[in-house]
Amino acid sequence: IMLHSTLALSLLLIAVSSNLAMAIKKEKRAPQTLSRGWGDEITWVQTYEEGLYQAKKSNKPLMVIHHLEDCQYCQALKKAFAENEEIQEMAQNNFIMLNLMHETTDKNLSPDGQYVPRIMFVDPSLTVRADITGRYSNRLYTYEPQDIPFLIENMKKALRLIQTEL
User: Residue 149: which residues within 8 A CB-CB, separation 6 or more?
Assistant: First the structure.
């Protein structure tokens, strides 16, 4: 009888600890901090350098979103970006994604100034695509929530340009 209860207790402990481990794992998966609200299903790289490395390795363009937490235009764009299924799907599958709340040392990422929000594309050949611009002549790489269809076109353009030019 002693052996039987020890075995039962051991099994109970194993069951409890594996459930606990699963709960901890689930807990860790929860809010993905790197997304910062731009899309939790997207895999985000942490740094520009990592983004360049992944772009080259995977032959996917890198999309860099410069933004700030207390910028109302960034918040509005982020909401539209996160709610758009087509953007989210393309970002998940076809791009290396980075959102930054600080400037990089790469001056190519701020060809017309360091404003936010600013979205730039970098080719897998590590060329910053300064030719993929938004709708505004004073801030070439900014987008507003109503420009989401235009951003989608630019994402497609970034994908097309790789296939034709490399």
Answer: none
